[in-house]
Amino acid sequence: MKKAIIIGASSGIGKGLAKLLADKGFKLGLTGRRKELLDNIKSENPESYINKAFDIKDINATLKNLEELVTELGGLDLLICSAGTGDHNEKLEFEIEKRTIDTNVVGFTFIADWAFHYFENQKYGHFVAISSVGGLRGSRHAPSYNATKAYQINYLEGLRQKAVKLKQPIAVTDIRPGFVDSEMAKGDGLFWVMPVEKVVRQIYKAIKSKKKVACVTKRWRLIAAILKRLPNIIYDKM
């Protein structure tokens, strides 16, 4: 039986992946800030899940709980980092920016490093992180969110380079969703908002094939391609 940990499994994409992987026969460690939501997931399938409630901004708690989960699972084949935050911040309030950076940069980096070291020591493994199509360009609405997702995209690329140099079967997958019908989809007039179930199915396919980068859903590949090529003189006015 394969073992996986999902960071940020209490809602949205993380919750959807937890249920899908359990159906596929995985033994799972689930984490999130909201214990009651994790408990609700476990109540549906108690044999498949081990839960730990903590906030990834707390590095000491993150380390302790990751080590406990690996021990209780009896190993680790796959770690998915689906935890993240972001808010519209038209007034550039620093506390909003700091909260986003503490989660999406500091917490993310600790988890990514921990996972990579673990897989390097056991000489195989798969690290998956949910970044965002938004990481391809900046945003006046949510400057820190898009910037931190750009950081994640580049960090994951660096980890892939490290894995190649090690010549070990360590896979690093960057999942870049567009707008998903979850708590993270904030704002009015959002377009092409995708249902969680569809997004999760496509993420699972990308994980199975150990893709390096996957935009989900597939139609968001078009948006990503346009964003990359849109001239600054046009993008700056959006």
Structural class: alpha/beta
Q: Give me the CATH fold name.
A: Rossmann fold
The biggest sheet amounts to:
7 strands, parallel
Q: How much strand?
A: 15-25%
The N- to C-terminal Cα distance equals: 49 Å
If you compute it from the alpha carbons, what radius of gyration comes out, rounded to the nearest whole angstrom? 17 Å
CATH architecture: 3-Layer(aba) Sandwich
Q: Walk across the major sheet and give the strand order.
A: 3-2-1-4-5-6-7
The top-level CATH class is Alpha Beta
Order of helices and strands: EHEHEHEHEHEHEHH
Query: CATH superfamily name?
Result: NAD(P)-binding Rossmann-like Domain
As for the number of domains, it is 1
Number of strands: 7
Query: How many helix segments?
Result: 8
Features of this protein?
single chain; alpha/beta; globular; 238 residues; Rossmann fold
At a glance:
The protein has one domain: NAD(P)-binding Rossmann-like Domain (Rossmann fold). 49% of the residues lie in helices and 16% in strands.
Task: List the SSEs and their pairings.
Layout: E1 3-7, H1 12-23, E2 27-32, H2 35-44, E3 49-53, H3 59-73, E4 78-81, H4 94-122, E5 125-130, H5 143-166, E6 170-177, H6 196-208, E7 213-216, H7 220-229, H8 232-235
Parallel strand pairs: 1-2, 1-4, 2-3, 4-5, 5-6, 6-7
